[in-house]
Amino acid sequence: MAVLKYAGTNTAVDDSDIVPNTDLIGKNMTLQASTLTLSLSSTPADTTYVKGTSSIDSVGITFAASLASSLKVTDVTLTGYVDDDGTAPFAKIGSNSDSSLTTSGLVSAIKLYDGDTGALISDTPQTNNLNNSTGTIKFSNLAWNLNAGQTKKLLVKTNLSSNPTSGSNDYFSFDIDATTDVTALDSSSQTVNSGNADPNGATNPTNVVTVSSAGTLALSLGSANPIKKAVYWGENDSLFTVYRVRSTDEAFMIDRLNIVTATGSEVVASATNNIDSVKMKYTNKAGSSLTALGSLDSVTGSVSFAFTGDNRPYVPKDSSTDIEVYANIRPKAGRTGTALSTLGSDVEFSLDWSNGGDDDFRAVGDGSGTVLTNADITDSQKAKGNDHKVYRVYPEFIQETVTSGSPVGTKDVLKFTIKAHGLADSRLLFDDRPSAAIRFEVLASGSQTATDMTARLFDAITGEQYASKTFSNGQTSVAGARASITFDEWDKDVEIAGGQQKTFRVQVGFIGFTDKNDQFQIVLRDTDVNTIFRYVDGANSNEQNTIVLNQAKTNGFWRLLPMEGPIFVQP
Questions:
Q1: What is the rounded average pLDDT of the residues 493-509?
Q2: Lowest mean pLDDT among 275-284, 301-310, 518-527
Q3: Contact 80, 137 (CB under 8 A)
Q4: Which architecture, in CATH terms, is 36-212?
Q5: What is the DSSP string of 44-111?
Q6: What is the dotted CATH code of the domain comprising 395-569?
C-alpha cells in the first residue's frame, strides 16, 4: 500500500488536500482483430476485346486491411465464369448453346498486378482448373503487403486466346468466390481470410469482358477536311482530303491504301497534269507523325501506298486516326503548251479513298490478326473528297474599311485588296480590253429617272487612276434593270506578281439620290452568271492564259466573296 506524505515529514497527506479528490477514469480502449475486406474496383469497367489480344485489364478487386495490423497476402484463388450471350446467370463451364465453353478456352494467360503501382505480383499460378467444372485458378506463395488501414487494388490481367468464339462474341468474368479463397498473415503471423466474398457478383457479374471474333473499321471525312478551294502552280503541301478511320473492339495496322482522283478521262488528265506528287501524312503505333510520297498513274489517276513494320498507319482500339492527303502541284517547269486544256487546269478534281477493288485497302487487327479489305469498311463517304481547282495564279479578295455616308457628291464606295496567290514567275495582269475586267453589281433605290453616273478605279496607295466607267440606271434596281459597273477599259496595264498584292478603291459621283432613304451599294458576287473578273496569268505574251471567273467557274472556290460595299443612305 502506498502512502503519500508531506515532504520532510512522516505526516500523511489528507484526502482533502489532493486535487481532484474524486476518482480518475481513463478512456475506453477497443481491441480490434485483424480483418480484410474485399470490394469491386470502379476500374476497369466492362470492356470488349478481340480474340488474341494480350495484356487486357479484366477486373479490379480492392483489398482493405483494418487498423489492427498490416497484412501480407499469400494466396488468392480466382473463380472464372463464362457465358455465350452475356446475360446472367454465368457458369463455370458451358453456357446456353455452347456446353464446352470455358474460361481457359477464352483466356490463355492470367497475371496478378498491384493496380496502384503497376508492379507484377505473380504470373505463375500454382493450380489452374479453369478448363473444368471447378473453374478456379490459384496463386500461392505471394508477398503482397498492405499497411494497417491501407486499401490497395488487385488487378487481374489476361491474354485472350486465338480460339474461335461461339458466335460473334463470348463473355467471361473473374471473382473471389469464398472467404477462404484469400489468405493473409498479420503482424503476429496469424492467418486472416477475407471477411466477404463475391465482390463481382459471381454468376451475375458486374464487370464482364466481351471477347469479340473480330474488330471493325469505319471511314468518314475528318473534321479538318478542307472545303473546295483554288490552288496554284508550284504550291506544295496543299491539303486536299482528310479521312478519319475509326476502329471498334480492336486496334488495326494499315498495310495498303490506294488514293484515286474521280473517274473520267478529263478529270484524270487534269489531276495527273497538275499533280507532281501525292503525300500522305499519318501516325504510327509509337505516336510518331510520318509521311509517304507517291505519284498518280497517268492512266488510272491512282496511287498505291504500301506500309510495313513500325511505319504502318495505326488506328487505336475504340478510337480513331486521321489520314491527311496532300498534293504538290507541278510548277511551270515540266508543263507544255499554252492552252488551259493542254495544261490541265480546266477541270476541278479531288483526291479520294479508292472505292475500287477490295485489295485497294488492307488492314490487320493488332490482336487477332484479322485482315480487313475495302469490302469490310463501313463507309459514310468513302469515294469523295472536295473538289479543288488549279490556276497558275489566282486572286484573293480582301475587303478594306470604307466609311459609309449619304449618296451625295463624289465618294469612295468600296476599297479592296487583291492578293495574287502564285509563284513569282506568274502575274495577275490587266493589260487590254479582252483580258481585263472587274464587274460590280449596283443595288440602289433612288430616282426612277435614270441619269448616267461615272465610277472610277484608283490605286488606293498612290492615287493613280486605272480605269473609269459611265454606267446607266445606277439610281434604281428595278426588276430586269439592275445596273452594273464593269471596268474593262484600263488607262494603263496593271500587274500583280505572284505572292504580291495591290489595294484599289472605287469612287462614284452620285446623281439623283434626293429623297429620304435613297440607297446605293456596289457588290462583287461569285454567284453572278456574268464575268465578274478577267485577267491574264502569264509573265509574258507567250505564256499567257486569259482566266474568266463567273458563277460557273468560281462558285464555292472563292471563299472571301461576296464582297459588299457599305450602304450609302440619304437621311
A1: 94
A2: 518-527
A3: yes
A4: Sandwich (2.60)
A5: S-SEEEETT--SEEEEEEEEEE-TT--EEEEEEEEEEEEESSS-SPPBSEEETTEEEEEHHHHEEEEE
A6: 2.60.40
